Amino acid sequence: MTSDGHTRILADGNELPLLGLGVWQVSNSQECADAVLWALELGYRHIDTAQAYGNEESVGQGLRESGVPRDEVFVTTKFRPTSGNDPADEAARSLERLGIDRLDLYLVHSPAGGPTWAWPGMERSRELGYARSVGISNYDVGEVETVLSGASVPPVVNQVQFNPFAYRKALLNLCEQHGIVLEAYSPLGTGRHLADETVGRIAGRLGRTPAQVLLRWCFQREIPVIPKSTHRERIAENAEIFDFTLTDGDLAELDGLDRTGGTGQAVENKWWRG
Ligand code: A2P
C-alpha cells in the first residue's frame, strides 16, 4: 500500500488505485461517457472496461471530457479471447477506441480456450508498450497455477468475482503467494447483496449504506474494487468508503456470509465456458 492507503503497488511496480468505476453492461453511449466523467469529477482515478463490453469509445469520451490528465487515471481493458485472435492486435484496436496511447492494465478476460494460449500475446502487448501491466481475469486456482508455470512475465492482477458471499480464500491466498493482486468485480453481487440483512444491520449501526459496507470489506483487505453504477449519486456514495472502519467483529460476521466454503471457485456460472 502507498502512504495515502488508497492504492496498491503491483509486482511490476505500477500503482493501482483501490477504488475504480466498473462499466460492465453499460452500452457504448452518452450514459457510459457520463458515468466515467462523473466518477472522475468525484475523485475516482481508475476506470475498468473491456473489449467485450463494447463501450471503449464512450469510456474514452468520458476520459477526455473530464480534463483529468491522462497520467492521473488508471485505465484497464480486457482482451476478449475468441479462437486464436491476437492480444497485441486487439490491444492496438482498444487503444484506438479509447483514444489513448497506452493501457495501464490489460487483462485476459477469461480462460476461454484454455488458460495459457493468450498469455504470450499478453506479454508481447507489454513489450510493445501497449500496456504497462498485464494480468488475468476469471482464473480459478488451477488456472492461475497453469498460467504461472509457463509465463516469462507473470500476471500481476487476477480480477474475479469477489465479495463476502464469494469470499474465495483459497484463490486469494494463492494469488498473494505469487505476488498477484486479486481485484474484486461484482463487489455488490451485481446489486443483489445490498438487501442482505447482516450487511444492512452493520450499515445501520455505522450510519453508512450497504454498498459502502460491502466496498469497505474489500478495502480493509487492500483488495481493489470496481463497483458499477451509472447514477451520479451512487457513484458518489460508492467513493465514500475511506472515512469509517469495520470492526474485527463486523469483518468476521461478513466473512461468515461466504458461500464458497473457502474454495477458489466462482459462485456464479462460468459464462465464458458457453
Ligand atoms: P446502477 O448502475 O443502476 O446504479 P456490482 O458492482 O456488484 O456489479 O453491482 C452493480 C449493480 O449495483 C448495478 O445494478 C448498480 O445499479 C447497482 N448499484 C451500484 N452502486 C449502488 C449503490 N450505491 N446503491 C444501490 N445500488 C447500486
Question: What structural keywords apply?
Answer:
274 residues; alpha/beta; 7-stranded parallel beta sheet; globular; binds adenosine-2'-5'-diphosphate
Please, could you describe this protein's structure?
- The protein is α/β, with parallel strands linked by helices and 274 residues long.
- Helix content is 36%, strand content 15%.
- The strands form two sheets. It has a seven-stranded parallel beta sheet with strand order 3-4-5-6-7-8-9.
- Helix 4 links the parallel strand 6 and strand 7.
- Helix 1 (30-41) packs across helix 2 and helix 3 crosses helix 4 (119-127).
- The mean pLDDT is 95.
- Adenosine-2'-5'-diphosphate (A2P) binds at residues 22, 186-191, 194, 211, 227-231, 234, 237-238.
- The site of adenosine-2'-5'-diphosphate (A2P) has 17 residues, from helix 9.
Q: Please mark out the parts with pLDDT under 50 across 5 or more consecutive residues, or reply none.
A: none
What is the share of helical residues? 25-40%
Distance between the termini: 37 Å
* Spatial extent as radius of gyration: 18 Å
**Overall body shape:** globular
* Secondary structural class: alpha/beta
Helix tally?
A: 10
In short:
This protein is an alpha/beta fold.
Outline the secondary-structure elements:
Layout: E1 7-9, E2 15-17, E3 21-22, H1 30-41, E4 46-48, H2 56-66, E5 74-79, H3 87-98, E6 103-108, H4 119-127, E7 131-137, H5 141-150, E8 157-161, H6 169-177, E9 181-185, H7 197-206, H8 210-219, H9 232-239, H10 248-255
Parallel strand pairs: 3-4, 4-5, 5-6, 6-7, 7-8, 8-9
Antiparallel strand pairs: 1-2
